[in-house]
Here is the input.
Amino acid sequence: MSDDTTTADATELEAAAFRRLVKHLRERTDVQNIDLMELAGFCRNCLSKWYKAAAEERGQAMDYEAAREIVYGMPYAEWKAKYQTERPGDGAASGPEKPGASLKGGG
Here is the structure.
């Protein structure tokens, strides 16, 4: 952060970047969560958990499903039915979360 950037400005920039990331992930329904986890160490569910945690840290009640709907742009069950696909050879639509995954790292 430069000396000219205030905390409020930084928060606005961070919020704008978050909104753009969420928009991008909503548009890229072809990218599966498991692929995101393998490549980046986080996925849409991780963002949902981080969003929920941030709300709770500020004293705001946040249901995990409500946080997921913010990230996915629709109820998770609807997104899953529309867009989640099985990986060839897996036989499962998504793998288990990585051991040790937490709010500080991956999902």
Helices lie at 7-27, 33-40, 44-57, 64-72, 76-83. Residues 9 and 103 are 25 Å apart (CA to CA). The first helix runs from residue 7 to 27. Residues 92-96 have pLDDT under 50 and may be disordered.
